[in-house]
Design goal:
It holds the Pfam family HTH_5. One of its GO terms (molecular function) is DNA binding. Keywords: DNA-binding, Transcription, Transcription regulation. This protein is of the alpha+beta class. It has one domain: Arc Repressor Mutant, subunit A. The chain is built from seven helices and three strands; from the N terminus they run ααβααββααα. The protein has a three-stranded antiparallel β-sheet.
């Protein structure tokens, strides 16, 4: 039951849903996510920690950046199911559309 509750709690925040939708389109570092959402870096880091704990996001170090990407779902069947369904959800939401369309302009080399 804990894995199910962790995924459910992770998805209970709109900013965490936005992070997942962005990560569907590109691997991002904290500063890129911060720039896209207009949130403080500690806030974004907390969101990423929750998402990672639920098995929805993974991280890897690349020189000076920590890259975040969607998990493959192997951690939890609930995370796998949610991530699979999320690909089809909210594609027409105006806020998500605007966020996704801004991604090509957000480059870590210019922000970090």
């Amino acid at each position: 039951m804990k894995l199910f509750v962790d995924v459910s709690k992770a998805m209970s925040d709109p900013n965490r849903v936005k992070i997942l939708k962005m990560l569907q389109h590109k691997v991002m570092c904290v500063c890129e996510i911060t720039g896209a959402l207009g949130l403080a870096q500690p806030t974004v880091s907390k969101h990423l920690k929750v998402l990672e704990g639920a098995g929805l996001v993974t991280s890897s170090r690349d020189e000076k950046w920590v890259n975040y990407s969607l998990a493959d779902g192997s951690f939890s069947p609930y995370a796998a199911t949610f991530l699979g369904n999320l690909r089809h959800w909210m594609e027409d939401d105006p806020e998500i559309k605007a966020l996704i369309s801004s991604l090509p302009l957000i480059r870590r080399e210019n922000i970090c």
